[in-house]
Design the sequence.
């Protein structure tokens, strides 16, 4: 996953509400087999981690957004922080562990992805 500093997506742009803690945005196409597996992984993670939303976008119907965000293949997953800032990005089918690690970056300081307060005030993950 790579950083995309400065990019921000809103609920209006996505057509769905942002999660209060983080949002997993998946760009998919209808006949993409890895997209189906990615959908399951992201749905599992969003059900596991309170305050995390999963939004799936059909890349073919949102070519404007695909071009703006330089989405080159599906699936592409963006991890948004609570304000819609893109904090991580990955192309291809992610592993569940990688998604959870990326969420640790997106979750506001002082909280862990499980929703419990952090015992350390470190900048490191």
Sequence:
């Amino acid at each position: 996953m790579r950083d995309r500093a400065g990019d921000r997506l809103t609920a209006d742009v996505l057509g769905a509400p942002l999660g209060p803690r983080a949002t997993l945005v998946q760009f998919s196409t209808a006949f993409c087999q890895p997209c189906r597996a990615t959908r399951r992984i992201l749905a599992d993670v969003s059900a596991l981690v309170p305050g995390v939303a999963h939004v799936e976008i059909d890349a073919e119907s949102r070519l404007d957004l695909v071009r703006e965000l330089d989405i080159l293949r599906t699936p592409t997953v963006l991890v948004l922080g609570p304000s819609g800032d893109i904090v991580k990005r990955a192309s291809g089918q992610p592993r569940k562990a990688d998604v959870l690690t990326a969420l640790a970056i997106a979750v506001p300081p002082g909280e862990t992805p499980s929703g419990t307060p952090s015992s350390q005030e470190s900048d490191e993950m």
Summary: The beta strands are 22-28, 52-58, 76-80, 86-91.
